[in-house]
Sequence to fold (74 residues):
Amino acid sequence: MKGCENMTPMTLAQAAAHYDGTGLTLTALRRAVTQNEIAHARAGKKYLVTLEAIEAWLKGEKLSGGETDGKDQN
Fold:
C-alpha cells in the first residue's frame, strides 16, 4: 500500500536515521517528544513516532496522540 510507511511506528533513533543529513537530530526529536510537540506512543521506555507526526510537527501542525503527563497545558 502506498503511503503506509508514513504511519509505521518507529523509534526515535530510526526516525533520526530517516532524516540523516537534514539537520534533524535524535536530540531534537527526543526534546520535541518529551515536550509533547510530536504525537507519540510509548513501548516500555522507548518512544514511538510516525513520519506523519514528525512531518506535521515540522509544518507547525499538531496531531493528536501525544502522551500527556497529566498536567494542564494552559
Notes: The first strand starts at residue 10 and ends at 11.
